[in-house]
Each structure stands twice: as structure tokens, then as C-alpha cells.
Amino acid sequence: GQSEAIGTAIAAMVRSGGPIIASITGEGGSGGALALGVANHVVVLEFGCYSVISPEGCAAILWRDGAHAAEAAKQLKITAPDLLRLGVVDEIIPEPAGGAHRDHDEMARRLDESIWKALQQFDDLSPDEIREHRYQRFRKLGVTGGDE
User: Which residues of 111-131 are buried (b: 16+ CB within 10 A; e: fewer)?
Assistant: First the structure.
């Protein structure tokens, strides 16, 4: 039932006339990660990662050996800086010293500030314009200059 639930969530997100802001606060992966792709704006915490498959799963498929997970992770480009450079995410939110888990209140404040700023960019757009923005953002995913 997971694939149907994911598909239903994606369909609802595509139809929504309101802005959708997605945040990756740790590790975003597997089929559920697909839904984040249809957001209007995606943020990731500084030490977050995001991929539709885990490095271990990728290594098991490509090399039939999970011991190649580090190489798979490098090739998948799942770190926050890679995701920003590739246009998969729109913003990296710096984490407090030692990581988000060290200061929940400060991390929540930073995330709140980021989401608020992201929402404001859609204040003057109609529902159709918001849907079109989301569509155009999604269409650009995976398009690179060829040297990625």
C-alpha cells in the first residue's frame, strides 16, 4: 500500500493551489522522497541528505555488495551542497554547532525563519501561478549542463 499512498500524496500536492514547502531535516530517502520533488520550495539542513535510494541499496544493485556504499553515496550526490548545486533543493539551513540535535529550539527557529521567507515569495501569486511554479521547478529536476 505504500506506493499507492505515495502516489495519492503526490497527486494531491500537484493539484494544490497553495504553496508547498518541503524540509529535509535528516535523511530523506526511498519512495517517499519522490513526493518532496513536487514542492514549490525545498530546504535541507546542513548535514541532511536526500536520495530515492540508500547508498547501501544502490551498492547492492550496482556491485551486488553493500560494502561499496561509500562509493555509491559519492555517485548519488546526496549531500546538502550537492543537492543545492544540482537544483534539487533551494536552500541549505545551517545547523547549530554540533548539529540540529544539540539545540532543538535554535534549529526550530532557523527552520521557521526559512519556511516563513519561502512562503512570502508566493504571497502575490494566484493558485494557478503557484501550480505552474511547482510544475516548472519539477521539470528542471535532473537537467544539468552535462558535467555533473
Answer: beebbeebeeebeeeeeeebb
